[in-house]
Amino acid sequence: MVEEESSKFLNIIMERDSRQLEEAYSLILEKKEKPAEEESFDIFLEKRAAGAAKLAHSAKVKGGFATLTAIHFAAKAKPYAESEKWHDKEGKNEHFKSKAKEVYEKLKDLDSLSQKEFQALMGELEVWGEVYIRSTKPNSIKL
Asked: Which residues have a Cβ under 8 Å from the Cβ of 37 and sit 6 or more positions away?
């Protein structure tokens, strides 16, 4: 009888704990998803620029072939800075798209580019593309 009562008690505790764990996990997932969707454009630019700078620095320190990676990520600094100045201006989306197209046109002439120029242009294109998409579709980031 005591064993049966203990078993029932343990089952009740385990069910309660299981429900609490599921609720906690759901809250964690909910909070994890909110920042990317609700994050302001300023914070998005700030975080992306900081991430690119960090990667550029670590690749530069590593040296060798990682230097191309450093060039790629270092080239993102200027477009991010320009995007910060444009983020609240009229016509920003057209500006971002125009800058992406400008870089894309330069990439079309692959035969004239050095590896360093190519890496820098690809870094710039990524920034203009992601900034344009983030600006026109702010809820498209679902990580």
From this structure: 138, 139, 141, 142
